[in-house]
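Key idea: predict the complex, not the pieces.
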Amino acid sequence: MELVLTLDQIGSDDRESVGGKSFALAAMVKNGMKVPGALCLKADVYHRYLETTGLGARILMEFNRKDFAEVRWEEMWDAALRIRNLFIKTPMPSDLHTSLQSVLEAKLPGEPVVVRSSAPGEDSLHASFAGLHESYVNVQGAESILEHIRLVWASLWSDRALLYRQELGLEVEKSSMAVVVQKLISGDRSGVAFGKNPNAPHQAVIESVYGLNQGLVDGSIQPDQWLLDRQSGKIISHFPADREKEVVAGPDSTRLQTLSAEQQANPPLSEDEVARVFQLALQAEELFGSPQDVEWTFVGDELYVLQSRPITSSRTEQEQDSRAWYFTLRRSFENLRSLRIRVEGELIPEMEREARSFAQQDLSKLSDSDLAQELAGRQQAHDRWKDIYWSEFIPLAHGIRLFGQVYNDAVSPSDPYEFMDLLGATEMVSLERNRRLENMAAMIREDSNLSHSLSNLSYPQPDHPFSVALEEFIDKFGDLSCSEELCTQGGDAIVRLLLEMASRAAAKERFRPGDIEALVHGFLSRFEGEKRGNMEELLDLGRASYRLRDDDNIYFGMIQNQVRLALNESKDRLAHRGNIQVDGLDPMEVINALNDPDYVPKTATVTKVDETNFEVRPRQLVGQPASPGVVRGRARVIDSPSNLFEFKAGEILVCDAVDPNMTFVVPLAAGIVERRGGMLIHGAIIAREYGLPCVTGIPNAASLIHTGDELTVDGYLGIVVKHS
Amino acid sequence: MEQITGSGSRRETLLSEESELELLIREIFESQKLAVLATQNEGQPYANLIAFAASDDLKSLYFATARATRKYANIEADARVTVLIDNRSNQDSDFSQAAAVTATGTAQEVMASKRDEILTIYLAKHPMLEEFVRSPSCALLKVQVETYYLVRRFQNVMELHVK
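Result:
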C-alpha cells in the first residue's frame, strides 16, 4: 500500500486517509488552480509509527489514569508535555524511515518545505481544528522534515487540541493525523480570504500582510483588511494596518524583518489584486460547494492558493467563541508580555482586594434583604472572575509551557520537567517565609535552654535574638499565615510549630547556590546573538508566569469561599423558618426566599443512597507523579487552616489544594498528596523545591484518606498506597 | 476549583461509589466464563482455571471440580483461596482499559440442601457442563468471599469488604 501520495495521486476515496487539508489541495490542483507541490503522508503512517514503536499504548496509559472528562487543564498540560517528549525521543522505525526518506529525496529534493497537519475530521463543517495543530514553515532536508513530521503528529496531543476535544466530547483514542509536506513558496504578499463574512453574510473579507502568512495566522502581525460585496465583488471598505514588520524565511524557520518605508506607506495589495484574491475565493467556493476560508500568497504577479477549508458558519456562535478561546493558548511571546503586565499589575491585585473587602463584611449584622443582595453580589463577582480566569490567567500560564517547550527542544534533558527548576529559582514569598522559620528552628535546636523554656511557654527577653526574629516574622508574615488559630493564639501557635521543626534535622532545599546558574548557562549557551537575548526575555517571562501561577487560584479560592460563607449564613436563616429544606438549594432560590418571607423554594432532588453489600476502602490510588521519591508515613489531612498547627514532623500532607498559606508546614512533611493535578499547582512546585515525593490529581484525596492512615507516596509512579 | 474544568460532559452519577463499583464487578462477572483459582499446598501456591458463577448478592462464587484433582486436595487441606476474574483481551489497550477482580475467601463444598438452587445458577451460565457437574465424582464448591480487590486503569486498586 502506498503510504505517501502526491497531490495528483489522491483520489475521491482518499479523504479519510489523507485528511481534509490534503484532499482539498488535490481537488484544487485537479481544477487547474495554482497550488505548490506537496506530498501527503497518510494517517496509516502515523498509526504504523505508533504501533511499531509501542507509543500508541503508552499514550493510552497516559489518558486512562482517570476519566477523560475529569482531567483538569493543568493535568492536560502535563500529559501533553510528556507525550510531546515521547514523540521527540522516539525515532521512526528504520524501515519506515528509509522509505519516507527516499520518497522525500526523490520528490522534494533539497527544497525548503512547510510541514502541516491534515487530520481526518479536521476542518469539517461541524468542527474546525484550524490552527489548533502545528505547522512548521521553512524546514529543509529529509532528516529535519522527518523530525518535524513527528512534531506535527505530537500536536494532535497538545493541551489545546486535547481540551478542545474534551469540550466536543470526542474520544482521544480515535484521533489520527495525516501530514502534508508542501513546497515553501516564499511569497512577498500573503493573506487569507473568507468567502463569506460570518458576521455579515452578504460580505466577503480579505486580509493581507507583506511576507509570509505566518505572522497573520498567529496574530503577531496586523493585516490590512478589505470588506467586499459578495454579489458585485466591489470593495466596501479598506482598513489599513500599522504596517511595520513582515515574516520572512530565515536560515532555518522564519524571522521578523522591518518593512521598507515604501512598503509601510502602501497596502500589500492593489485593488486589482484584491479582486483576484476574491475570484480565487469564489472559485474555491464553487469547487467545494460552500463558502471557503482560503490561504493564499503572491510571488510577484503569480497567485498561489496554499489551503482551503470550509467556513464553519453552521456552528452556533457559542461554539465559535469557545474555539477562539483555545486559540488563546497559542499566544505569541509579544502577546504574553502585555498580558503579564495586565495580570500582574491589575487583575491579581484587584481580585485580592475584592476578596478581602468581602471578608470584612459582617454577615450576621445584615438584614435578610441586604444579605440577599450581598450573596447576589458575591455570586456575580465569582462569575466575573471565573471568566477572567479562563480568558486571562490560563493563557498567561502558557508562558511556563512556552519556555518549557523551547528548553526541552534546545537541551533535550532526560527529565522533561528540568525547566521547572530554572523557573522555580525565583524568590517566592512562601519560600522566604519558610527560610525564616527554618532559621528560628535552628536557634531552638542549637540552644537547649531556649528549647526547654519555650516548651514551657516561657519566652525569652524581647532583645533575645530569637524574640527579635519571631517579632520580625509575625510582622512580615502574620497576615499571610493568618488562620483563625494563629490570630487567636498569636506567637504560641508559631512556637509550637517551631518546636516541632526543631525536633527533626533541618530540611534541605534541593539546590545549592550556583546550581541554577549552571542550568541557566547550559540553556543560554546554546543560543547566539539576537536569539540569545530573546531567550533571556523568554526565561524572564517564564519566571513571571511561574510566580503568578497559583496566586490566581488562591485568590479565586478566597472569592469562592466568600460566596460559600454568604450562602451558609443565608441557609442558616432559612432553616430557622422551619418549613424550608435547605440542603442542595440553588443560590438563586436562596436569594428569592430571603427577599420574600412567603416564598417556598423549589427543593433539589436528593440523591438516593443505594443499598450495597460492601464497605469500600481505597487501597492504591492513581494520580500523577509530580515530584520524584518514595516515602511511607502517616497521613495528616488538612481540611481547615487550624489543622496546620497540629502537623507533626514526618507526616504526609494530604489536602484538596495546597495553597501558599499552607506551605510553611511543608518543611515538616515527608510527602505531599493533593487532589488537584498537574505540575503547575503549588503543591507540586513546593514539593519539588524541597525534594519531597509528591502525587497530585487524586480525585477525592481528602475524603478517601484520613488523618492517621499509613500511606506510601510513590512520586515516581504517581501512586498512593493506603496500608491497612 | 472544582467547577472550573472544561465544560465537557461530566457523567451524571446517581449511584454511590459503592454501588458503582459493585455494578462494575457484576459486569465483569457477566462478561467472563473462566476465572483463575489459587490454592496452596504446604506453602506452594497453585493456580488453575475454573468455570465460575456468582451469587446475585456477589457474596459467593461457585465452581465445580472433580474430587481427584490437585485443587480439591489443596482446598481440603486449607480452605483459604483466591479467585481472579478479569476482562483483558490480550491487547496493548489492556494496560489501561482492562479491569481485574481478585476475591479472597474460603472454599467449601455446597451443602446438599442448597445444591439444586446453586446448580441452577451455575448451569444457567455453563449449560455445557451439565454432565460434568452431575457426575458423582464431581464436587460443587462455594467460595465465601471476604474481600474483593478491584484493579482498574493499570494501578488503581479499591477494596470491597463484605459487610
